[in-house]
Structures are given as structure tokens and as C-alpha cells.
Amino acid sequence: MAAETKIRRLKEVKVKLDGREYTIPPFFREKKDSKGDDRTLLNDTFIEFYMCNYMYKHIFPQDLRAKCQVFGSFFYTSLQMRIRTKIKEPLKRSELLEAYDKIFRKRDTSVLDKELLIIPVHIETPKHWFLVLIHNPAGAIRHFFEVRPGVHDVDFDENQMDCRIIIMDSLFGWPKYRAPLTVHHNQVSENLRLWLQMTAAVAQKELMAARVRKVVCEKLPRQQNSYDCGIFMIVCAEYFTVYNSQWMAYDTETLKYLRMDASNEQSLATEEPRLRLERLLEALKVESH
Question: What is the dihedral of CA 118, 164, 95, 152, to 10 degrees?
């Protein structure tokens, strides 16, 4: 019983990973809610610690790290704010490069060389985390090349796979949340598509908006409370990269039907994923002196 009490941590803890310390809030609280639940929401510090550092560096094999990029917990929030404040009108293709320079301090096109971009997204209403996977970001790129001085042609493979913006949201299956979340999903998809278009312009390429496809997965497990969205997001990020990457070869139309295996679905209906993370923190805890 004492061991169980120790796992259900009610205070913040300091952990150390790869020479860096993190202060992680408790995953449980003393007072239960009206439904008898004592769990807490995962905050941005833990999402950053786990997805960008532990998962990427210590769970992903080297070949997976080489072909994907995991973004920080504030990446999308910051991108959305900058687009909202610095871009007032729909952009013409000739304005994409200038817009990129307004939003970002330095130019970086490396995301176009990755096969998979992994982006945690946080929204305020409802207060919620969900996952975005951008598969094949360069799939919608048209390459321009000079045939002779002053004359350019376009190289585009019509048979190449789309760029797919895949949304994995553990609240989407609940009817009361579907309408407001659809608004968020559409906005997130549009902002990420614009980001990719601006990035392509920096690389002196064109990203065709029509080849950027949004997919919302409809068959993934649904959270049964108000607190487990971050847990579901982390489990999806691991499962659909380390344990199941076959989906990357699927047609875009079939991605909405992606499922987890039965054991992972059953686990998400319990506290075990949260307790597993608690055991990790216990192992990395900085002892106080």
C-alpha cells in the first residue's frame, strides 16, 4: 500500500534527464472531482520533457530520429499567435517569403526534408491537448528549374503521395465536443499548411495547397474524463511512430480509420499509462539533500 501511495504523487518533483532538470507538477491531487477522479491535466513542461527529450532521444531508434522532428509544446501556440498578429490578409504566392521573415527570426527549411513532423497542440476552450502528425511534408512541393537563362519549367510528380496533416484527438468522438473541435482542427490545419507554404518559399519552391490534405482520425480511443488528453496524445505519438509506422504507406482516405491494437486501447481505459509515467519520473528524480 505504501508503494502505491508513493506512485500517486501529490507534489511536484524535480527530475534530471541528459544533464537538464525539470520540475514536474503532480499527476494526482488529494481532492477528487464530482465523478470521483483525482487525476490532473499534464502541463506543457511535462509534454516538453517527455516528447521532445525522453521519447525522441531515448525511445525513438536512430533511424526514426533521422527522419522525423518533434516540436515543442509551445511551437503551435506561438505560430498561431504570430500568424494572427502579423498576417492580416490571405497571402499571394509572391508574398510568402516576406511573410516568413516577419514571423521567424531565421530561415530554416529542414522540415521539408523530414518524413514526419510531430506537433503537440494545446487549445484553451476546451482546455485540451491533441496531436498533429504531418506526414510527407514535401509531398506537395513543385520544383522550378531553369531551362535556359530567364526561362523556367516545373517538375512535379503527379503520382507522389499527398502531404497529410493527421489530427489525433481523444475528445473528438464525443458529440458535445465535435463541433467546437472541428473549428479548431480546421484552423490548426490552415495555419500549418500556411507555415509549410512559407517554408517552401524560403527554399525557392512552391507547395501546392490542394495537395495538403487534412485527416481527422475517427476510430482512435476516446478519453473518458476531463484530464487524460495529454496521456492519450503521448501514447498516440509513441504508438504511431515506434510501434506502428505501416500507416505511412496507406492511402490518405483510409487514415481516418486508423486504430490502435486492443492492448493499447484497453490500457488507455485505465490509470496504467499515467502510472507508467510516474515510475519513469521516480527513476529520474533528483534527490533532495
Answer: 120
